[in-house]
């Protein structure tokens, strides 16, 4: 089954809606410039009231490994998602446990299309997963828009041979099934596509999103 993460959780009500809908994970953004930013204290209050089988993922941007590890422990996280430039030096973040290295697809594709030898793809720790999004340096944490799925299809295909790959950016209940079929990821991640407004989820959109993923899973199983 496709792993489903509902990200940008800011309150317990939304987290419980995601869990009840059948999501595998919820995400907490610890990037202060994000409209979905939460404090460690708020995240801990939420994670303490969630089932043990649900992944609790913290999203960090260019924090030191020590700070990420400390905040993860305080917030009761089970995984971390590194959404800045950490993918350029992944060995520095061998923290143990599940780590999602987020790659800005547009930038990676540009680098890979440069002169031969101009870009060396980093080797990620064995426990790593790869998170592909449309984020740009000016707007960390994703833009809420899809990346170029057609151009990136070969990239996703190559990465999935080595790591679990999660796709994000512009996903909604209406396009997520098609995206899974076209790109073949291990998981999907959504924030703005299931919101009533930034930081507040729309319960019906959350349920519809998870339902669309599960219907696709059932169709191809």
Short description:
The protein has a single domain (3-220), classed as TIM Barrel (Alpha-Beta Barrel). The relative contact order is 0.17.
Could you name the CATH homologous superfamily?
A: Aldolase class I
The secondary-structure class comes to alpha/beta
Strand content: 15-25%
Highest-level CATH class: Alpha Beta
CATH architecture: Alpha-Beta Barrel
Helix content: 25-40%
Distance between the termini: 8 Å
Order of strands, widest sheet: 1-2-3-4-5-6-7-8
Helical run tally = 7
The low-confidence runs, each spanning 5 or more residues with pLDDT under 50, are none
Query: What is the N-to-C succession of helices and strands?
Result: EHEHEHEEHEHEHEEEH
Query: Structurally, how many domains make up the residues?
Result: 1
For the CA atoms, what is the radius of gyration?
Answer: 16 Å
Total beta strand runs: 10
Q: What's the pLDDT, averaged over the residues?
A: 91
- Tell me, briefly, the overall form: globular
Determine the CATH topology. TIM Barrel
């Amino acid at each position: 089954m496709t792993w489903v993460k509902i990200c940008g959780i800011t309150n317990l009500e939304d987290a419980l809606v995601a869990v009840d809908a059948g999501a595998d994970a919820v995400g907490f953004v610890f990037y202060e410039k994000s409209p979905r930013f939460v404090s460690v204290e708020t995240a801990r209050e939420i994670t303490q009231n969630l089932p043990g089988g649900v992944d609790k993922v913290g999203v960090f941007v260019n924090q030191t490994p020590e700070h990420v590890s400390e905040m993860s422990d305080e917030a009761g996280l089970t995984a971390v998602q590194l959404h800045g430039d950490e993918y350029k030096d992944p060995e520095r973040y061998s923290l143990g446990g599940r780590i999602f290295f987020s790659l800005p697809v547009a930038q990676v594709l540009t680098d890979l299309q440069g002169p031969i030898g101009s870009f060396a793809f980093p080797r990620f720790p064995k426990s790593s997963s790869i998170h592909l999004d449309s984020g740009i340096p000016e707007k960390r944490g994703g833009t809420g828009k899809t990346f170029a799925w057609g151009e990136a299809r070969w990239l996703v295909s190559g990465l999935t041979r080595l790591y679990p790959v999660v796709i994000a950016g512009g996903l909604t209940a209406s396009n997520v099934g098609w995206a899974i079929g076209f790109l073949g990821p291990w998981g999907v991640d959504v924030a703005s596509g299931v919101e009533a407004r930034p930081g507040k989820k729309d319960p019906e959109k959350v349920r519809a999103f998870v339902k669309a993923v599960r219907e696709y899973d059932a169709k191809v199983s």
